[in-house]
Amino acid sequence: VLMHGTTLHGAQARNPAFACMPTLYYAPSTPIGQATQAVQRRGWGVNIGVVGQGSGAMAGYKRPDDTMTFFEIDPAVDRLSRDPKWFTFINGCAAGPIRTVLGDARLTMEREPAGSYDLLLIDAFSSDAVPTHLLTEEAIAGYLKLLKPDGVVILHLSNRNLDITGPAAAAARALDVPFLHQIYGESSEAPDMAEASTEAIILSPTAAGLAEFEGDPRWSVAEETDIRPWTDDYVNLFGAVWRHMTR
Question: Which of 29, 55, 80, 168 has a CA-to-CA distance to 219 between 20 and 30 Å?
Answer without folding.
Answer: 55
